[in-house]
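quick q for whoever's on today - can somebody do inverse folding on this one?? i tried earlier but teh output was garbage lol. tokens:
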């Protein structure tokens, strides 16, 4: 089992999704690791604002606003181009960890996204529900990334409540 992005996790929902993408590992890494691209593939993300100067790298900080929920402050804590990046963040209701891994594959690149969410306070009891809710969202996001990078249009929205197949 891989180590956690979140230090000293307690009750954490871990969600992973992966896909083979017909693009170079460098192209996939550059697109996916840049947090300012996330609103293009995450329909729940309203806005990302870079708070630090310079290019994306270790120590870069971002303010991320979502359609629902509080604003999340996030920081790059690991960057090994073109293979892996990690973000660590939090809000008043949760801590979050995000790892992207890109490996060469016969198709071009194999992308693995891992999300770790640790709810705070009484919300911690909802962790199993959060895991079930977030899994299809991450699968939709990775399908959008694949379609975007391979030049296709965005995949259709899955009807609310529909399970990933």
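ok took a stab at it. sequence:
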């Amino acid at each position: 089992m891989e180590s956690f992005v979140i230090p000293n996790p307690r009750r954490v929902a871990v969600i992973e999704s992966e896909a083979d993408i017909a693009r170079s590992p460098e192209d996939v890494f550059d697109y996916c690791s840049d947090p300012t691209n996330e609103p293009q593939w995450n329909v729940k993300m309203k806005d990302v604002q870079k708070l630090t100067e310079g290019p994306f790298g270790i120590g870069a900080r971002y303010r991320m606003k979502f359609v629902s929920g509080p604003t999340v402050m996030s920081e790059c804590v690991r960057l090994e181009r073109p293979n892996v990046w990690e973000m660590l963040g939090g809000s008043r209701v949760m801590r979050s960890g995000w790892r992207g891994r890109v490996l060469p594959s016969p198709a071009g690149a194999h992308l693995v996204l891992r999300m770790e969410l640790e709810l705070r306070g009484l919300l911690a009891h909802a962790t199993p529900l959060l895991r079930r809710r977030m899994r299809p969202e991450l699968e939709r996001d990775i399908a959008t990334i694949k379609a975007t990078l391979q030049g296709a249009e965005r995949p259709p929205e899955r009807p609310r409540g529909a399970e990933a197949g």
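fwiw Residues 154-165 have pLDDT under 50 and may be disordered. also The domain at 14-43+77-149 is CATH 3.30.530.20 (Alpha-D-Glucose-1,6-Bisphosphate; Chain A, domain 4). so keep that in mind when u check it
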